[in-house]
Amino acid sequence: MADLLLGQTLRFEGSPTLEGPGAARHSARGGVLIEDGRIAAVGEADDLRLAHPGARVTDYGDALISAGFIDAHAHYPQTAMIASWGKRLIDWLNSYTFPEEMRFSDPDYAAEIARTYFDLTISNGTTTVCSYCTIHPASVDAFFSEARQRGVRAYAGKTCMDRNAPEGLRDTARSAYDDSKRLRDRWHGTDRLSYVITPRFSPTSTEEQLEALGALWAESPGLLMQTHLSEQTDEVAWVRSLFPSLRDYLDTYERFGLLGSGGLYGHAIYLEPREHARLKEVDASLIHCPTSNTFIGSGLFDMDGMTRADYRVGLATDTGGGSSFSMLRTMAAAYEIAQLRHRALHPSELWWLATQGSARALHAEDRIGNLALGLEADIVVIDLASTPSIAQRSARASDIWEALFPTIMMGDDRATKAVWIGGKPV
Ligand code: GUN
Ligand code: ZN
Description:
single chain, 426 residues, alpha/beta, Urease, subunit C, domain 1, TIM Barrel, 9-stranded parallel sheet, 16 helices, binds guanine, binds zinc ion
């Protein structure tokens, strides 16, 4: 039976950065028809009711129906150590992250955290995540098993590290290749799951490992590859000292076959002109992780420059370097960082980044991230008056953007009125 969801609706027909807020389409009384897990129609509520009298109607009143949020870079194993105090990147990894990731040698612990992680992200309206796992193959099994059971479209890969990580948290060039390949064959393309080749970042991989993973990527058409790039100045200096003969940080990926379309580069704050040019040339995706960039003190991503140059830019929590599971909080941080660079991102741009922008970064914009005919029905319904502080402000709004912006800036999981995944209510 078809489902008809009624409420305010928000969808996009283009990028608001390139075309202005008019690229968004808002209806004050719209509807979304869902059939067989996909969006079968989007339009005005009255028209859809008349055209589909047999559909089961769920009326969300004046709540806002949107594509679900897409978190393009997260570390589900860092769920239980989010908000760890007082360190910058390298010390933060050594003090908090690695000891926690060590615990994932226990598959039961991995399963428990995967469950908690999906509970938290879905309750925040996130319907797709692209996550790192740990070096343990079972951490990938735990993540994908949980995702599969919930029917979500999800992306993940085994994090590969064969140096500069503690004993017990290192693989080898050979085992990273073999395990990644085995996990790819087990999971990629089953239900809604996609395997992602995942070297953590060049400081924790030898040249042999980077080369092996580059070879695997070359043998895996259609696979994404994710890693970190130029997040902190100390890290960039460390990479220079580890790879003295290479031109720059990006070159540590480029030389080993790890630069290309389908490459997802997290952070990308401190880029040289050559790196900019190459990333653009190959149509790589840059993933902005704003709460992480402020929380671990990394710096200010150049959203204005990147979106104007029409890079594929995704938005992400980077949980638990990022300090939130919420894509609303993440949009707010992206707004604040852009403000520090004298650019006010419009609410339509923020919403686009958290849905279409991230989908485009994952090369999945023809499947998810918008309310459009034929797309998979992953939907979030947002209460635009979820707390007293938001309600008193949105009550004054004269248009959808003024009504939405208080939720972007002050909203959390209380704003999630409903979530639909693959055409089914959660
Ligand atoms: N660089 C390498 N690993 C990590 C990580 O786990 N989080 C963040 N924010 N940066 C990284
Ligand atoms: Zn990260």
